[in-house]
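Quick one: structure tokens for this chain, please?
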Amino acid sequence: MSVWLPTAPCTPDACVEPGRAAAAVPRAVLRLALVTALVLAGVVLSPLGWGSPRSRGRIPAEWIRRWCRLIVRAVGVRVRVTGAAVPAGGVLLVANHVSWLDIPLLAAVRPGRMLAKAEIRQWPVAGALAARGGALFIERDRLRALPGTVGRIAGALREGAAVTAFPEGSTWCGRAHGRFRRAVFQAALDAGVPVQPVSLRYRLLDGGPGTAAAFVGEDSLPASLWRVARTRGLVAEVEVRPVIPPGTHPDRRSLARAAQPAAAEPAWTHAALVVSALVDPHERPGRPRAGTRGGPARLLHSPLR
């Protein structure tokens, strides 16, 4: 992987706190079984064109929204959506990136074509589902491919599709956010379409941070699925922020800055959390020190500076 690719300092050991009240194992297993059944149903129905522009309308968008909400609810996460409806027609939907839950949550707001790294195409089940849903796969390792990728995104936007992207380029734990990268916003400028920012937050019912939802660092998808299924009272808050109309920002830099969400907490607080987990192995008894899998250099190479 290229060294220029964006990274986050977050790791499961440093940032992720399991829910204070864990759901019983049988309940967690039932939740995962329901999620599996829903995903398999999506794979079976995806050839009907539920996300492809060529087959637009064969499966109503409202059905897709409900299916995505069902996936999130099936794993035990409550959903709260605030803000106005996303505009119709071509629109670039951008959000901060915390969890694999972000994908069905944004599709529940407005189904669209997901911007995804090329490796996802090879994933079992999820890769086929993403491809049939019209995902735009990008090769993040190849800078030379970037202009062509921007052109494909702009083409999809001109056709009236919603394109969903996570401009941070990496997942963060939700305590802090990364900087929005500018390239994808050039596609919105070229196509002359609005940008719809969305802020995603995960909390517990008591108001505490729901970092159990975070899918960061060297975390594996099975481990993350199990952690979310075992967490009680996890709430996903989806804030649809005011749309940014075309022509209101002259370049992609200012457009990216306008779409950027406010940091969840001061950068220095998050940096201190990561560093303390790295240097103090006694803080979490019985758990490996943060960075043992990713290395200290990865942890300390933080864009928060």
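The beta strands are 77-83, 91-95, 113-117, 136-138, 162-165, 195-204, 234-240.
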